Batch of 2 targets.
Target 1
Amino acid sequence: HMLLPVALIACTTSCMSIEEFIAKHSPPPAPLTFAEPLVLNDGCEGPVHLGQLGSSTVITSEDQERIYAVNRDAGTLSILHPNTGLTEELYVGLEPTRITQNGTHVYVSLRGERNIASLKETNGSLEIMDMIPTGAEPFGIIASPDGQRIYAAISMENEVVEISTQTHEII
């Protein structure tokens, strides 16, 4: 098995684009495995996040078979399949900024739409299930460890909102 250098993918703005990563590592010489815990870097300056509960621009799927990365300018979520080197794009809305996961649900802050997109992983694919209105420019987003809540930083209103993962309503 080849250890996937996830940190390189997280550095898409200043070190290596996802396309460059795929070209360099595709097809992979052997099945890939992820290091535990997942370490993400910001701008290749050093670790900023361990695990998957935090707000980030890149996360792995629940089964660790795919990598999801937000593409703010394109309004998409890139889905990278490391074992094949294939990528796909899923349009999620205006200015996707951060992403977090709660079991089989993925949440993406959509800064340009004043919403959080709720997506569900099913049989290796993602489907948009709901749009959660939040207020002006949701930015950071994080899931609670118990999976009952997500928290979003609303940058233009200088507040953090608490959202039920059951009802998708602000509490």
Note: The chain has a mean pLDDT of 77.
Target 2
Amino acid sequence: SADVAAGSESGTTLNAAGAARIEARSHNSAVSSTQGIGFGGLSGVGVSFSKSKVDGATRAEVQGPLTAGGNVTVAADGRNVADTTSKSFAASIGVSGAGGAAQAEVTDKADVEALVGSAATITAPGAVLVRANSDNDAKAQSDTGSGGIGSIAGASLLARVGGGTKAELNA
């Protein structure tokens, strides 16, 4: 996933005649799906594995002087979705087995941050708002089945959400 950043670095001066808005917005999405099917006379095997991962950060920041003629907003809004599905099936007149695995992860790198650094100075007659919102979802699904005189089916699922949300004013 790509990182999304908006703002100023240390040593950069921002001037606005009216209100100033520094905003970063992202919607990172990873979707995957696999299918494994096996048929056989005396034996059949079906296996599938699917993985989705999102690790893009969203950051709005001010690290230098900012002068505005109105309100100042530093905002980061991020939505991260990892969605994966694994399907497997096996059949035979004898022995069959099916296995599926699905992993969906929003990693700890998928932070959503709105920051005003310690070297920043904000001069404005209006309000100063520093805001960060995030919505992180991970969904893993696996459907498995097998049929025969002797059959077995199993699934392994992992859905993990990392990534923090931070709004910070270090003035």
Note: The radius of gyration is 24 Å.
